[in-house]
Every structure is written in C-alpha cells, then in structure tokens.
Specification:
The protein is of the alpha+beta class and 387 residues long. 16% of the residues lie in helices and 33% in strands. The termini are far apart.
Amino acid sequence: MLVTRRADAGRRRTLGRSETHERVCYVAFVTDSSGVLSCTSGGKFRYVPLSRYTLGDTSNEYKDLESLSEEQLDEIACKWTVPGPLHHVAFYPETSVTPRYFAYGGEQVPLSVWDLPKALEYYAHSSEESVPTSGDAITDDAQKTGEKRRASSGKSGKQRELLPGEVWRAKNLPNDALSLQRHPLIRSISFLTSGDDAAGEAMYERMVVLVGTKDGLVRVYEPSKKPRHTAEWQVVPKGQGSIRVMDVCPTEQAVFIGDTARNLYMVDSRSGRTLFQYKDITGTISSLLVLEVEGAPTRLLGSSLDHLVRLFDLGEPYGPSQRKRGKTLEQFFSGTDNPTAMTIDPLAVPRVEHRTTEDDEDVWANMAVVGKDEEAQAASAKRAKHE
C-alpha cells in the first residue's frame, strides 16, 4: 500500500514544466499502458507518452527519457486546459490499465464527462491548449477557435458547446427559492460499475456517476439519459458537514462516504439509504480504498488527518436492506500529515501457507490440557464426600 500527501502551492516539476501557482494542487494523477496523465486544480491537464521512450523506439528524436530536459518534456507532452478551479477528477473504469473515460467538477464547475482517447488524439495534434474559464460560458465563438468542429453538424446547441473529447456536461441546477443561481459545489466524484464487460459506447450507455457535494448531498447522474441528476440523497445531515471522499464497493452495491465532521457512512448505492455509520473515528477521513481480493472478505482502508490508516470490515447483512454496523479491525500510524490518496502495490506478495510438520504434531501431542487434572480431582472429591 502507498499513501501519498497532497502537493500544494509552490514550485514543482509537473512532468515537463516547473510551475509556480498559489493555492494550486494536483487533483488527478493516473498511469495507463502508454503514459502518465496529471491534472491540477487550475484545470491544466498534461499527458506524457512515456512508452514512446521507455520501450526503445529509435524513431524518436529523444531516446533516453531520463536525459530529457524540462523543456523537451514539455514539448512532447499533450496539454489542454479546462474551466476551473477543479476539486476532483475520477477515471472509469477505475481498475482498467487504460481508462476510457474521466469526469471532473468543482464548486463552480459542473460535472463533465470526457472520452480520454478522443481528447488525447485531438490535443496531440492541436496547438490549442486553453479554453474559456468563465464557467458555462463556452460559447459558439470558443467552439470555432477550438474545434471548428461541430457547428455545421446539425446537432443541438448544447452539443456544439462541448469541447474536443468532452462527451457530456451537466446542466446548471435550478435556481433556489430566491431565484438565485445554485452552484454544483462538487467535492468528490465516483463511477458506479456496471458489473459486466461492457466497452466503448455500451460502457457510456450504462454509465452512472455519483457526485458528493459541499452541502452533504450525493447526486446521481446518468449521462446517456438526461443532462440533470436523476436522484439526490442527503447523506450528511444539513449543516453538519461536507462530503470529502467517496469510494464504491460493487460487490456489496454500496458506496462509502467520508465527511468533514469525522464521520464514515456505508450507503446503499441503489436507494441512497444509509446502512450504518462507523464509530470511534477521531480524524477526518481523507482517502478511501475498497480492498477486493479473491478468496478473502472485502475490506475497506481509510486514511485520516489524525495520521492513522484504518482497516474496516463491512458488517454483516441480516435482512432486506439491513446491515450490522462495521468495525475497525486494525489501525496503523502513517506518519503523513495530510494523506490524500492510497493505492495497492501491483506486485502481489505470494501467500505463505503454513504446513504442519512432525515437530508441530509432537508439540500438540505433548501439550498439557489445562484444567483436565483439576476436573478429575474435583470429581473424585465429590464421590468421596457422598461415600
């Protein structure tokens, strides 16, 4: 297991360019079979095709990746910028070597779903890097400069507003009772898995996206069906905290949700019903990771701001939509001030099976049974008393 810390403001190398921004941090970092994709809260995406250099492709001008300067890395990177600030980026399928889709959002940035291969194909051959940053104000003029691309296709106005690689964007929320605009307030994003081997367009057709918000809500989106959310659950009681992290457990049809008030919930991903809340958590949960290992019970890892990583069980079902409360099985000191991500080492450690030897059998055979002699003596004394 690897626990990482949030990379906050300051000078840092972002796979090819040193940037100095105030209050900017990474919100995404993922590797696929060909390269590395990163994204900052400022909406800057950067993809470096590492395989072109690590696999010994002599047709490239640069042969040794380690010898490349920051300027050279910046030159080979595929870059684009989306409206920000962003709070979270999620990838789907999450367990795939090569994710097909990703989604992002922020407190003032609506949920947006992208086709990763299409985005990389476009921006790898385009000199365009920036897009308008005024929220939803991605106009037809912006489209003409970016794609020149779907204006004559006869599609709807909303379709013409989509950026290259973007396949769907949520509509604005309805205004509140005072006719004031409601912002999306997105804090966390998770994809619900379909549980089958759907690919390509079929994967998009079955896509379900969960969005956790600053006001404790979970909104459910089905991009292929409608531009607004299909359900809304108040998981965190109003005024008692914001949703900070989420992670989906497909085998249990549940989603785990941690808030800013040091609470951790297990929620039914079909109905939004809270199944239970874990107890005795002394720090705000900052990262969650569901552990599903073949032949072993499903477990949950949670890192928190009290420097601990906890291992939880998932409780036990005991009736329709009923579940016993899960417990903390173990806790470990992480030594990290602000852990924000966890991952599993892909190099599996082989399980060592204990084999009983003859020496072991001798030990068990010669081991005294505690209490046997005492019981015999008590029985003898009882018989003697009756006699």
